[in-house]
Amino acid sequence: MQQRHLAVVADLVPELIRRLVYWNAFVPNNGESLNDMVPPHYLGLFEAIAAERGDGSVVLPFPIWREAFINDADLELARRAYDILNPHPLKTFSDKIALKTNPAEMQVAKSYINCTEDTALPHGYPWHPRLSEKLGLFRLVQVLGSHELCFSDPARLARAIMEAGRD
Fold first, then answer.
1. In sequence order, which residues have a C-beta less than 8 Å from that of residue 135 and are 6 or more positions away?
2. pTM of the predicted structure, to 2 decimals
């Protein structure tokens, strides 16, 4: 079972975590997978890409990645960033998380960074508030940028992370 999620660490050793900082991220509850939180037509897209690749992994076609993930970068930067992406194992989309405590009930402090131009999920299926509200009490940090702000404006992302983690 896929267990590489920050909520798992907070669930297992909360005393080691001062604050969870999510950045336009999925917020699964116990027994949920990424596939449970995306629009239904994404499931077919992911499976079709993995089948075509033949290795059980997903790399989105450049036009989708360009328009939905890094829409705030120029074409040259978008291409350079795309060229260093790694395939994403399809199984990590369907593996369900195992938690003793759902994020909303966790006692650790939480923040959610929402990149306002992120269209990796359609705005009808928003990161915030649809997923962020699953954190219960949390600090919201809104920042201008796409899903790939780490490429398009890393300094802006760093400031948002610092704001999200302050105390």
1. 20, 22, 27, 103, 104, 110, 112
2. 0.93
Alpha carbon distances (Å) from 60 to 47, 50, 140: 11, 10, 29
Q: Return the domain boundaries, the chain.
A: 6-27+62-86+102-165
Q: What is the C-alpha to C-alpha distance for residues 135 and 158, in angstroms, rounded to an integer?
A: 22
Cα torsion at 60, 61, 63, 68 (round to 10°)?
Answer: -10
CB 109 within 8 A of CB 20: yes
Beta bridge partners of 109: 19
Q: How confident is the model at residue 2 (pLDDT cuts 50, 70, 90)?
A: very low
Residue-wise pLDDT for 138-153, tens only, equals 999 999 999 999 999 9
One-letter amino acid of 54: G
Beta bridge partners of 84: none
